[in-house]
Amino acid sequence: MPIFSPRRFQPRFMPVTRENETIPEKALTTVEALVKGVLFGCRMCGNCILQETAYICPMTCPKGLRNGLCGGASPERCEVDATRPCTWYKIYERSEKMGRLDKLLEINAPIDGKRAGKEQWSEVVRFYREEDSSPKFIEFVTNREKFQQDLDNMFFKIRQPDWWVPSSPQLRSLPHWAPLVTSSGKKATCSANILQLPTLPTTPRPLPA
Q: Is the pLDDT of residue 209 over 80?
């Protein structure tokens, strides 16, 4: 039973191919699967979104939903397996406690078959080294708000691959493709059983020619 997530319903993903995979990469995949499996019930999807889903792995959902809830969800049980809680209800509950419900308005990319079953830690390290705006550890003490903002921005770039986020500036400006706060500054709120989302802009925007 994972420490921070409901138990995993399906087995972990395995790589489609291990061609060109080095021994260190295989070793890192094994270690990452072990550590994240114990903590989060990780299925090694290759595009981790834990930082967005309140550190509850959405892939523990029996339907494998990366954007929940489903239509059959209830606060008491999962639609597929009545012996387990709904993963996405747990995500919303914890996100509310953490003050991060607005993160759940982001639309997550589907699983990339080329990455599924492979480690992601090396990609996080690479992003951290290459990005000038990466969070500075000293700011965790001196400026916690800026540290969290930089951390959120870094992981946003990692979990939203280029093939998923549209290249058009007009489409990129739509609220689905950015961490959401409405123009009034209101964030999403959640009652005991009903998610209440803020009103989003409804004015149509012209699409690129």
A: no
Residue 53, CA distances (Å) to 22, 59, 95, 114, 142 in order = 31, 11, 7, 23, 26
pTM of this structure:
0.75
Tell me how long the chain is.
209
Report phi then psi at 9, rounded to 5.
Answer: -90, -35
CA 127, 132, 133: angle at the middle one, nearest 5? 85
Q: Which of 187, 176, 198, 157 lies closest to 49 in space, CA to CA?
A: 157
- Residue whose C-alpha is closest to residue 111's, from 71, 73, 68, 163: 163
Residue 78 CA, chain-centre distance (Å), reads 20
Question: Is the model more confident about 162 or about 26?
Answer: 26
Q: Is residue 31 pLDDT above 90, yes or no?
A: yes
Angle ∠(151,147,118) on CA atoms, nearest 5: 25
Could you tell me whether strands 195-196 and 189-190 are parallel, antiparallel, or unpaired per DSSP bridges?
A: antiparallel
Identify the residue whose tokens are 């494998």: 64
* Mean pLDDT for the stretch of residues 36-40: 94
- In DSSP notation, 185-199 reads -PPPEE-SS-EEPPP
* 139 sits in which H/E element: helix 139-142
For residue 142, the one-letter residue type is T
